């Protein structure tokens, strides 16, 4: 770029220099012609008895003059000088030459007006600029095409290995076709990395599944024992209270195991996605389950959902659970006399469901981790063990639903579900 | 009614036995082969089958058992809880499917529901205090007057009636009514809200002293 700018800056001088050089050459040629003509016709044919001779074109652009000169022989000179022609003082580029005719020295001057010399400078400069600009564009285009061609495998690697892959990577990736060793190396490394991630993920999933199943049996035994014990201990208030505490703890364990199992089953693709779901009816039936919870905090609930919208290729039970968890949280973390609003928007390729509450909100330092498993929430009296949103995210990912949160601490939060419409 | 409990975890089997023997006559089998010999020798109304047996595939046992004893009602109990197992089990003729861990109360109410359906037990009106409850039609009557309860309120009342004279915790009650959802609010008073509503609606007609609050625990219907 610097070279180009330098060239553009220097261009006027270059053009002028070239114009002058060419002009000097032209003057020398003219001189040769004049000398030749003088040699043929003799100098007197021009002088016609006068001391000197002068001739110029009509607009005084060029002139030729012959004058007697001193004895001194000087070599040819070319200089920019001023001459008075018919009372006008004009600047000429003049070639002076001393010639001798019959022992008489004459000074021959061939001149060209400097204005005429530089008259072609501007157009020349412009043409040069255009050519330069054109060259630059052509160079850039060639560069682009060439680089694109060269980097095509990189694009393929990025799009097939990184962008269009959804975790977990199930399908075996075929190697990208390329003759560049570096790209091959990159591709192989990425495939290897993903295989490792996949293996780790598979192991974790297997562990979750097995651990959950193994935990279920002892939990069942404990639960049944406690249930029987609770009845046996009926007249005794204190021991009964303790059993109840144990049952609560056990129940918590049970819920955790259930949730982990659910997540691992979703990740195992165990749920068919063949259901059509009307968001309006879905929210209505969830609220039928949750209505009683609104009373507790005197919450105001309103749903404004389009009656015609139907979403396809979903698993009804999972979507129910997803929206249920979000609505449940909206109630659980709300304040007394607060409100919950569910509305929707139809975008070109997306159906958007928005659940807004006036609850405790989410702090900026927490917002990135709310979907993580076992995130601890401890706000006032409400305590959770943090699997509800993790389940929500797993279900959303399973259906390619984008789930976003906008929240302000102390003001409330909005959970946004973007369902793809294809 | 006679129940065969097929369960390899002895502790689990004996707890089920303890719970169910108040209402049923129970037999235990801890292996598949034991189960088959018991089925050959007896006639059962209910077979409670754990799928994870040491000597035999639970679903295969279900097929064999149904040949030997086709009139029994089969309830699958399993810790595997896989969706395919559930579908396969129901396809093979199981009447219900209960994933572990389950509540014994839930097991009993499922058995009652099957009994009503399968053995066509005509429910007469169940008296409670001065009221009568029709589980089939899901109605509550005071003399000839029908009292309107919400769906959840009726579920709660009938569940407590089924397990009458037994203290029921809020968690147990909540689990029955909202079984599928991971609900972690133990201190929530939503069960109390429903009980309060039931009491309010019924006490307009007669006393509801049979619906007792058990301090720290929950509720009980005492009749």
User: What would CATH call the class of the largest domain in chain A?
Assistant: Alpha Beta
Query: Which pair of protein chains has the largest interface, and what are the residue counts?
Result: A-B, 50 and 46 residues
What's the β-strand tally of chain B? 12
- Low-pLDDT segments, ≥5 res of chain A: none
Approximately how much beta-strand content do the residues of chain A carry?
A: 15-25%
Query: Count of helices of chain B?
Result: 8
Order of helices and strands of chain B: EHEHEHEHEHEEEEHEHHEE
In the CATH hierarchy, what is the superfamily of the largest domain in chain A?
Answer: Histidine kinase-like ATPase, C-terminal domain
Uncertain residue segments of chain B: none
Question: How would you sum up this structure, described in words?
Answer:
The complex is a heterodimer of chains A (422) and B (223). Chain A is of the alpha+beta class. Helices cover 52% and strands 22% of the residues of chain A. Chain A is built from nine helices and 14 strands. Chain A has helices spanning 2-41, 44-47, 114-117, 121-163, 181-232, 237-267, 279-297, 316-332, 388-398; strands spanning 53-56, 62-68, 77-85, 88-101, 104-113, 275-277, 300-304, 311-314, 339-346, 350-357, 377-379, 382-384, 402-408, 412-420. A five-stranded antiparallel β-sheet of chain A has the order 1-2-5-4-3. A five-stranded mixed β-sheet of chain A has the order 7-9-10-14-13, covered by helices on one side. Chain A has a two-stranded antiparallel sheet with strand order 6-8. In chain A, strand 1 and strand 2 form a beta hairpin. In chain A, helix 6 packs parallel to helix 9 (388-398) and helix 8 (316-332) packs antiparallel against helix 9 (388-398). The model of chain A has no long low-confidence stretch (mean pLDDT 84). Chain B is an alpha/beta fold and 223 residues long. Chain B has eight helices and twelve strands. Chain B has a five-stranded parallel β-sheet with strand order 2-1-3-4-5, with helices on both faces. In chain B, strands 6-7-8-9 form a four-stranded antiparallel β-sheet, covered by helices on one side. Chain B is elongated and about 60 Å long. The mean pLDDT of chain B is 85. At the A-B interface, helix 5, helix 6, helix 7 and helix 8 of A face helix 1, helix 7 and helix 8 of B.
């Amino acid at each position: 770029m610097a070279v180009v700018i330098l060239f553009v800056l220097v261009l006027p001088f270059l053009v002028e220099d070239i114009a002058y050089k060419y002009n000097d050459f032209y003057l020398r040629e003219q001189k040769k012609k004049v000398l030749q003509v003088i040699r043929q016709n003799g100098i007197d044919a021009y002088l016609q008895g006068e001391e000197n001779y002068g001739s110029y074109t009509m607009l005084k652009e060029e002139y030729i003059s012959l004058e007697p000169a001193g004895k001194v022989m000087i070599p040819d000179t070319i200089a920019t000088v001023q001459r008075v022609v018919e009372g006008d003082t004009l600047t000429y580029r003049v070639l002076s030459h001393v010639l001798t005719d019959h022992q008489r020295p004459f000074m021959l001057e061939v001149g060209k007006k400097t204005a005429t010399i530089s008259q072609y400078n501007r157009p020349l400069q412009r043409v040069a600029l255009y050519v330069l600009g054109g060259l630059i564009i052509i160079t850039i285009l060639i560069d682009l095409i060439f680089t694109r061609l060269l980097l095509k495998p990189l694009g393929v690697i990025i799009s097939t290995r990184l962008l269009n892959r959804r975790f977990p990577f199930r399908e075996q990736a075929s190697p990208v076709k390329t003759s560049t060793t570096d790209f091959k190396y990159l591709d192989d490394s990425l495939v290897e990395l993903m295989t490792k991630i996949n293996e780790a993920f598979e192991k974790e999933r297997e562990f979750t599944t097995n651990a959950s199943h193994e935990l279920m049996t002892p939990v069942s035994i404990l639960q049944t024992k406690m249930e029987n014990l609770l009845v046996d201990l009926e007249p005794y208030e204190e021991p009964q209270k303790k059993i109840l505490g144990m049952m609560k703890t056990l129940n918590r364990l049970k819920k955790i195991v259930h949730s982990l199992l659910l997540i691992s089953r979703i990740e195992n693709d165990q749920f068919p996605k063949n259901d059509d779901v009307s968001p309006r009816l879905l929210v209505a039936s969830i609220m039928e389950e949750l209505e009683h919870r609104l009373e507790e905090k005197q919450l105001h609930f309103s749903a404004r959902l389009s009656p015609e919208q139907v979403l396809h290729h979903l698993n009804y039970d999972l979507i129910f659970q997803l929206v249920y968890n979000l609505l449940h949280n909206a109630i659980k973390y709300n304040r007394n006399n607060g409100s919950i609003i569910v509305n929707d928007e139809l975008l070109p390729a997306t159906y958007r469901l928005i659940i807004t509450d006036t609850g405790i909100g989410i702090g900026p330092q927490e917002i990135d981790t709310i979907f993580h498993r076992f995130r601890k929430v401890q706000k006032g009296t409400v305590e959770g063990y943090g699997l509800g949103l993790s389940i929500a995210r797993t279900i959303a990912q399973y259906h390619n639903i984008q789930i976003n949160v906008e929240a302000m601490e102390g003001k409330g939060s909005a959970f946004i579900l973007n369902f793809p419409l294809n | 009614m006679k129940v065969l409990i097929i369960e390899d975890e002895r502790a689990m089997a004996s707890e089920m036995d303890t719970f169910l023997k108040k209402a049923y006559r129970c037999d235990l089998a801890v292996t598949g082969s034991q189960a088959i010999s018991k089925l050959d020798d007896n006639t059962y109304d209910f077979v409670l089958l754990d799928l994870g047996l040491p000597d035999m595939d639970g679903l295969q046992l279900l097929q064999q058992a149904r040949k030997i004893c086709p009139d029994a009602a089969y309830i699958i109990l399993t810790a595997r809880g896989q969706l395919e197992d559930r579908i396969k089990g129901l396809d093979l003729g199981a009447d219900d499917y209960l994933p572990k861990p389950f509540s014994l109360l839930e097991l009993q109410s499922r058995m009652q529901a099957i009994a009503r359906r399968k053995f066509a037990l005509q429910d007469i009106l169940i008296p409670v205090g001065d009221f009568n409850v029709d589980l089939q039609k899901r109605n509550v009557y005071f003399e000839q007057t029908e009292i309107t309860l919400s769906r959840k309120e009726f579920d709660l009342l009938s569940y407590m009636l089924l397990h009458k004279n037994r203290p029921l915790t809020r968690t147990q009650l909540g689990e029955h009514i909202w079984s599928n959802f991971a609900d972690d609010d133990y201190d929530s008073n939503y069960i109390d809200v429903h009980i309060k509503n039931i009491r309010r609606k019924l006490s307009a007609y007669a006393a509801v002293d049979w619906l007792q609050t058990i301090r720290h625990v929950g509720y009980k219907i005492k009749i």
